[in-house]
User: Fold these one by one.
Assistant:
Number 1:
Amino acid sequence: DAGITQSPRHKVTETGTPVTLRCHQTENHRYMYWYRQDPGHGLRLIHYSYGVKDTDKGEVSDGYSVSRSKTEDFLLTLESATSSQTSVYFCAISWDGGTGELFFGEGSRLTVL
Amino acid sequence: KNQVEQSPQSLIILEGKNCTLQCNYTVSPFSNLRWYKQDTGRGPVSLTIMTFSENTKSNGRYTATLDADTKQSSLHITASQLSDSASYICVVGPASNDYKLSFGAGTTVTVRA
């Protein structure tokens, strides 16, 4: 299995509180991604990173921010959580942003009450 | 509108039987098409990756086919096992921006003894 660790794996929080999800990799892959997965939808890209301090928005980036200060860590922050952000969040890594294989973490289940 | 449509949404098969999952896509041009397996509560795991010039690729009892002319792909599972119970996700990588993969909503396969 690819060395990807997501934390926390489960979190329940209240509307309006800030939340940070962490993705840690030991593979030294250049590219890191945050996706959300909701019933009836395919995985949707929130933000991605193509290097330290290099990030860009995905298709559902509103309400989310990211940071990558080290190759191994990619943080996803919800500044003020809303109930619509209740979801399962997956981190993924790849060595090649083009045709490279994508390796996923085990997911972080977030519930916003 | 989702550019990757999968069918059926779910299916139930008996252990030892074969089944075929379908994926239709509108992403154009595209560089690659992938199939992932996602066990309940886990992250997706890659089964196959095909470039636009490949017609078929196998991984054990899993065989993926691709018809770029009709924009269709299929995943065939041979001699199903209980461990094949999972969601199978079709993913298309656009040629213009390979970071932003398009994910299907998945087909849930249940294998019964």
Note: The two ends of chain B are 37 Å apart (CA to CA).
Number 2:
Amino acid sequence: QSALTQPASVSGSPGQSITISCTGTRSDIGGYNYLSWYQHHPGKVPKLMIYEVSNRPSGVSSRFSGSKSGNTASLTISGLQAEDEADYYCTSYTTSGTWVFGTGTKVTVL
Amino acid sequence: QVQLVESGGGVVQPGGSLRISCAASGYTFTDHGMHWVRQAPGTGLEWVAFINFDETKKNYLDSVKGRFTISRDTSKNTVYLQMNSLRSDDTAVYYCTKAEWFAFAYWGQGTLVTVSS
């Protein structure tokens, strides 16, 4: 149950697009399309942003999009806004019937 | 709207036990599984345990297997996490979440568990 690998930090200017990667193995990301992304503002409750690789729950901005290729998933935030500054985590279902989170990425809006 | 309210956190000595609860409302409790996810101070999120809608399936993080037990009471719309043989590295905010789309669709506010002598 090793954590999925994410970059520690990603930054961008308002209006720009950024992409956060999430790398796993054939036993998790590569095995299923049960890959989701969460936004977590410190001190607040995490929020589901993307489920099943690329689906957005009702109410989540279309500026957030997800994709997957092989054992790596990506979250893209387009039109970056100050309110997007937060920690982001990916998570995947695994072949062991468990779930594993990514290491987390701090997004900074310059 | 979906509401998840955790309770039962507190300070416990190493080796001790604690049961935390999560009361769910705003949806049909028996239609969905539930997870516990934790965040230790200064670290990231970590999945802990899952129970499916009818309690026939339970899964655990390796490091809590044999020490933690997840259960649910449909008469109270509540999910529990019984934690035994607690260690300092179990110190964390514990969140309950509603399972949907193999994801953590809704989160409670969390309850803090501190393991310390």
Note: The mean pLDDT of chain B is 97.
